[in-house]
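Example (one chain per record):
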Amino acid sequence: MIMEAIPAHKEPPAKFTVAKSKQTEPLQECVRDALNSYFRQLDGYTATDIYQMVITEVERPLFETVMQHTEGNQTRAARVLGISRSTLRKKLALYHLS
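Predicted structure:
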């Protein structure tokens, strides 16, 4: 049996533009506002583990949204995110998204 080579489907790379003005990006502004609100609510208590708190709050919706846009295709999702499929699978399990 002769096997034919099937060309791999390649998605064009996403192109992002970054504004060169001093305008704040919407995601950055949301994170900044949420953190300022968090610090105001501490009422004298010491903040701890802020890095992990922010990463957790941002990662879950990031993975949820990417998985929706890639229609659950983990290979495409990993490519979009710029991470390996094994890392993606670990994150999906961590956030109970798989």
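Caption: The chain is about 55% helix and 0% strand.
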